[in-house]
Design goal:
single chain, alpha+beta, Thiol Ester Dehydrase, Chain A, 6-stranded mixed beta sheet, 6 strands, 34% strand
């Protein structure tokens, strides 16, 4: 199954990161596992920008979200000191989960380095079982991300 590779115009949010020395491997390229960290950094910036961060900061409201899936497609390589543009969006919302799309582009050349997806589940802090996403969360996402698909029952 091949998914269409997204482009920057498909996103409402961008985070800019620079590849640091400790993120490159002995071949001189950004290590493949580091891109998952870039996605995570971009997601945190996304939730801040979209107004989804609790007023007193992350973890302050007792709500728990688990990252349950990460998918990444490696298209090219980044190297030390490359400036990368990390594009992120919430593409869909289901009952208790939502999906992210990500795209990382080398700023200097416009070359796609990686693209990927992630799934996050909202869970009850006591039972650790999935529960329905709150309506205010969905409304904030819809306001920030008008093209989000709502796939709730």
């Amino acid at each position: 199954m091949t998914d269409k590779i997204l482009s920057p115009k498909d996103f409402t949010h961008k985070t800019t990161l620079t590849v640091r020395f400790h993120e490159v491997d002995m071949l001189g390229v950004c290590n493949n596992a580091v891109y998952i960290n870039f996605f995570e950094t971009a997601r945190l910036e996304y939730i801040k920008t979209a107004g989804l961060m609790p007023e007193k900061g992350i973890f302050s409201d007792g709500k728990i979200f688990f990252m349950v899936r990460n998918e990444i497609n490696y298209r090219s390589h980044a190297y030390y000191d490359d400036v990368l543009e990390v594009y992120s969006r919430i593409s869909y919302i289901k009952n208790s989960s939502f999906g992210y799309d990500h795209l990382i582009i080398k700023q200097k050349t416009g070359e796609i380095i990686v693209d990927g997806k992630g799934v996050v589940v909202y869970v009850d802090p006591k039972t650790r079982k999935s529960i329905s996403l709150p309506d205010n969360f969905i409304q904030k996402v819809k306001t920030f991300e008008p093209t989000v698909q709502i796939l709730r029952d």
